[in-house]
Amino acid sequence: xxxxxxxxxxxxxxxxxxxxxxxxxxxxxxxxxxxxxxxxxxxxxxxxxxxxxxxxxxxxxxxxxxxxxxxxxxxxxxxxxxxxxxxxxxxxxxxxxxxxxxxxxxxxxxxxxxxxxxxxxxxxxxxxxxxxxxxxxxxxxxxxxxxxxxxxxxxxxxxxxxxxxxxxxxxxxxxxxxxxxxxxxxxxxxxxxxxxxxxxxxxxxxxxxxxxxxxxxxxxxxxxxxxxxxxxxxxxxxxxxxxxxxxxxxxxxxxxxxxxxxxxxxxxxxxxxxxxxxxxxxxxxxxxxxxxxxxxxxxxxxxxxxxxxxxxxxxxxxxxxxxxxxxxxxxxxxxxxxxxxxxxxxxxxxxxxxxxxxxxxxxxxxxxxxxxxxxxxxxxxxxxxxxxxxxxxxxxxxxxxxxxxxxxxxxxxxxxxxxxxxxxxxxxxxxxxxxxxxxxxxxxxxxxxxxxxxxxxx
Length: 458
What we know:
The chain has 23 helices and eight strands. It is of the alpha+beta class. Among the domains are: 101-241, no CATH class; 386-453, Arc Repressor Mutant, subunit A. Strands 3-2-5-6 form a four-stranded mixed beta sheet, with helices on one face. The chain is extended, with a radius of gyration of 33 Å.
């Protein structure tokens, strides 16, 4: 047997970079799409935003007779992004945040109002620097005392003073201590509340009110009132100062509004298609004999990239519009009557109807929202999972969740229903569902179990 090198022809599919970018543009929600387009504008001098192009003849007349000016302008455009990136890396700029709007800044401000000596303020600042974003003290008093040559008791005294600062519960070393610092001395059952916080948080979380009632010799109603007071306390008092907890507003990609009769108007956000254009000034440079070969090659390449991006944005618009129109057609009961009337629908059905691949439908609805007469919904909400019923119409998971919500809303608060009893009531309505499914959907909706929903009367 001899070793031989053989050439075997075969076909292989490859996705071009242009197609990959087109799929990425389709999958981007409107917020991320804006950032992506702005980045493209910064990197491509031929791509401009919301400008009126002048006539090419006028632009040619305005061109400088100096051929170096053209090269300088293009050179500047090519290297602007790299220059900004180098400046950012060098300065490590992270943005300026007012000091008093942070947790530590707020605590430092309160510390300055205390009549402390210089060494005491230094210790106080060290303690504050050891408080995490949740508001808990995570340092060691002995180490701070050794660092500043003070006794542990004196450092602990300063910590106790900081724990009296606003917000209440700040500087605690544990959850129990944090909650105890927030208990008002004016509460009538303060002693019971403090005892439950100190020793019974595990049983409270499990809803073992009967056991706690027998242990402390009080009624279940008093235990429940104490639990209601504990639930009003903040287990993470420092989180409200965290810079990451900013409110993000959802910008819908699609808007559906009721028209005349049963007609609904579907509009897709197309602000980027309307505003983007190819800069005519640079486009004319490619045909100018004074432009060098390197600059002409660069202009042609950037012009192709700009036209490609604009074409991809148009394709995104038309694809999203087709998908939205198809969804409105199939989910007409939802738009006419409300969320409880949403029907089973699959992406395969939509893809087959409008003649695109199912993966394209998935990208088109991913992370995108639609503004409807009933509120803002994710496009994926219109493709609910469904349960097949023997010899009965298919029912969606949303409809089952609505049934569970309705049953729990009408239950006796003193004797709440178990998951098995909820299952039986749903099956009485000719819907076949398991107890495990009821428990799964109840937890998904944030509804507590039977014991935690129970209310005790006097």
